[in-house]
Fold Histidine phosphatase family protein.
Amino acid sequence: MTHSVQTLVFLRHGEKPDNDSGQLTGKGLNRALALADLLISRYGRADALYAAAPKQSKLGNSLRSLQTITPVAIRLSLPVHLEFHAKETKALRDALLDKAHHRHTVFVVWEHDNLVKVVRDILKQTGGDYSDMPVWARDDFDSLWVLNIVRGEKEISVAFSQEKQGLNNLKDYYY
């Protein structure tokens, strides 16, 4: 029996300042730098990386998702897929569920409200239970949501888990 295992790891971008600069705070940058070791040691080498495409605002582009995944991309020498803006959740869902990723580990960095929509849509699409999905709190930058999707010849199963990065005690400054 042929089967495939796909692991999708979802995380929110690092901490942001209380303005519309589109940047990370020092703590957010420190989180991004720590994520390369954490994600690779916990989930192995990713086959693909996705981040929300920069969004233009009055002050400039929101680069937080890209800034958060960049240290991982550098460590793994992988490109970052930036095809979709944060609100394009159905397009992201379709890309992640594409047959090309069925045997992949994929790290996805996104804006938290839309990240919840993507995970819920993937659970719906794959027959998973999304009825007791947790809420992603506005001040939670430390969660990881993981979907393990196992595809058999005729069946598909999906397991959702919520984990913690354990990086909340990072410094608020960077130099």
Summary: The two ends are 53 Å apart (CA to CA). Helices lie at 26-43, 64-76, 89-97, 112-126. The beta strands are 4-12, 48-51, 55-56, 61-62, 80-81, 105-110, 143-151, 156-164. The chain has a mean pLDDT of 94.
